[in-house]
Amino acid sequence: MQTETTEVLLRHALEESGQRFTEQRAAVYRTLVATDQHPTADEVFLAVRHDLPGISLATVYKSLETLVGCGLAVKLTYGDGSARYDGRTDPHHHARCLACGRVTDIEGSLPGPQLDMLRERADGFLVTGYRLELSGYCPSCAPRASVSA
Ligand code: ZN
Ligand code: MN
Predict the structure, then answer these.
(1) Confidence class of residue 112 from pLDDT cuts 50, 70 and 90?
(2) Considering the entire predicted model, what is its pTM?
(3) Number of the ligand closest to the Cα of 76
(4) Separation of CA 149 and ligand 2 centre (Å)
């Protein structure tokens, strides 16, 4: 995505949710849309520091939450309390490596009948969406995983 387009999109979304445009938020957003690695807040912090050496980890955290609140980013949370951030907000799924924690994008959607079947089993639950996460071992971790398993 071009830098200019990214900034226009950010300004608009922040305005819509009554938030101010700041250089910090812009730098955090640029970092997120430039990667498909689903970075943690710490990783975003390390990347953003190149552009804005004075930025604090707390500001990065707050900026990430603001972006999530504006619908510009998605927060992927895990059972151990860790989180990763995704600058991609169109429907897609993820595969997460149980060894190194790496998260990669998976394209595609469940066929309608499959989704209907799950919805029926949800027994009165109003389904508004779904998220699919494949778990296992990434190509670099898979050989070791199969040896130690
Ligand atoms: Zn891995
Ligand atoms: Mn993703």
Answers:
(1) confident
(2) 0.85
(3) 2
(4) 28
